[in-house]
Write a structure and sequence with these properties.
single chain, 65% helix, mainly alpha, 0% strand
Length: 78
């Protein structure tokens, strides 16, 4: 059975299509989502992210400095 045979024939009006689409996509009225985070928890999350970023940056800087030291020692080996 094809999809076309499931729908009534068009008779100059497409209101059946609109009605069918509304029925197909009908959902219950959405309820507002309660905010679980307060400004204090938002700030704490931002501070934690900032601290993590600083930690990662310092690790990268340490790695870069170690690499530069190896390059310098290789270049200026006496």
């Amino acid at each position: 059975m094809s999809m076309v045979s499931e729908f009534p024939k068009l008779k100059g009006s497409r209101s059946w299509l609109v009605r069918a689409a509304r029925e197909m996509f009908a959902t219950a009225e959405a309820q507002p989502v309660a905010r679980l985070e307060t400004p204090e928890t938002d700030r704490a999350a931002r501070v934690a992210d900032h601290e993590e970023d600083k930690r990662l940056l310092s690790e990268v800087e340490k790695h870069d400095l170690a690499m530069l030291d190896r390059v310098r020692s290789a270049l200026y080996k006496d």
